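Quick illustration, no need to memorize.
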Amino acid sequence: MRVLGIGDYGDLGDMYLRLATAGHDVRMHIADADYQSVFAGMVDHCPEWGQGLEWIRDAGPDGVIIFETARHGVLQDELRAGGFNVIGGCALGDRLEGDRSFGQEVMRLAGMRTAPVHHFHDFAVAIDFIAKHPRRYVYKPNGHHLPSTHSFVGRLDDGTDVRALLGCHQRLCRTGEIPDFILMDHVSGVETGVGAYFDGRRFILPACLDWEHKRFFPGELGELTGEMGTLVTYQGAERLFAETLAPLASMLASAGYRGYLNLNTIINAEGVWPLEFTCRFGYPGFAILSALQSSGWDEVLAALLGRAEGFGTIPGYALGAVLTVPPFPYMDAERSLARGLPITFLETLSEAERQQVHYGEVASEDGGLVTAGASGYTLVATGVGATVRAAQQAAYGLLERIVVPNGRYRRDIGERFLAGEGRRLAQLGYLPASLPIA
C-alpha cells in the first residue's frame, strides 16, 4: 500500500508510523510550518502534498490519500472524482462538523431528539436573547479555526456567566469581524460518544462507545482541551448506534463519505440528545481505538476502501491518557517550549508495551526520541482489559515508566464511569448486562 497523509499538524503520525513499520510506503504532509518537525526522522515528509499525487497515482489501486482535517471536504470530493482513493470525509462531513446548526438540523431530520440551538452573528443580540430567555447555556463557536478552549459550558441557571463571557468577546472583537456561534440549551446526563467507520456505502460494524475527558485537570477542571483521555469499547454500542448513526447511512453514501464518524451525545431518562459530529479521525480517539483493533491499520484502510468485509476487534475496554508538556493546551511556537525534550523510559518496554505507546508531537534526533511541534501534545499511553479498572491500571502502569521533562497527564480517566456513569447507562438500557461496568 502507498499512503499519502495530508494534515495541518501531523495528527495521524502514529498511524503512518505503524503503516510504515508494517512495510507500506508512507509519506506525510504537514501544512503548518511550526509542526513540520513532527515525526521527522520517523516518517518520510512530503513538503507539498500536490507533489505526491502522481506518486499515489502511479501505485494504482494500492495508492491511498488520507485527510486528517474536516475542512478539505471539497478537495477530497474532487480527488475522488479524479480517480484517487481518498479516506477522511467529504464536503458534507465538513459542514456537519463545522456548522453546528446544520448538524443539529440533520439530526432532527434523521429522527433524533435535539436540544434547542440558537445561532448568532452578533454578541449584543445573543446577550439580549439570554436576558429575555434566562437558562443554562453552552457557548460553541462555529468553524474549524478555533480550538476547543474557546467553547464554554455555562453553570448558572439564568445564563449570567455566559452573558458575561459574551460581553468580554464583544469588547475584544475586532472592527469588521463577524462572529459565528451557537448557544445550546444545556442538557444534563451521561456524555457518551458513538462512532463507526463508513466505507462510502455502509457503516462497518462493530461501532464503538466512548467516554471522553475533555478538561485539562482532574475533576473536570480547567480548559476544554479537546481530549485529555478516553475510555472506549467495541461492545454494547448496538442500541445507541441504531438510534443515532444508522439512520444517516443513506445520506452519507449519497455524499461519498469515506472515513470515521463520531457523534457525541447526552443520555438521560428522556433518551438520547445528540450534541455534535466529528467527521474525521479523532485525536487521541484513533490511537485508543487501535488498541482494541486486532487488525492493523492497513486492514482497516482496506475495509474503508471496500476491499474487506470488516476488521477484527478485541473484547473489553481500552483506556488512553494523553501525556503533554508546556505550553499545552496552547501553542507557543516563538519560544519553542514544546521542542527538543528527551523521551526516555525507566526500563525497556516489551514489544506488546511498545504497541501501547502512541506518539504525537515527537521526532527522532541523534538516535533518540524528543518532543517536537508547538503545542506539547506528546503521546498517548493505552491500556486494554476485560474491565475498566484493568484497562486503567495497564495504561497508568505504562505511563509511570515514561519519562519526559515537565510531562503531565490526568490520572482520573475512567473514574466517572466507575463512579456511577456506567451503572446509569446500564439502568437506562444503553449498556448490556453482559458488559462489565467496573
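The two ends are 40 Å apart (CA to CA).
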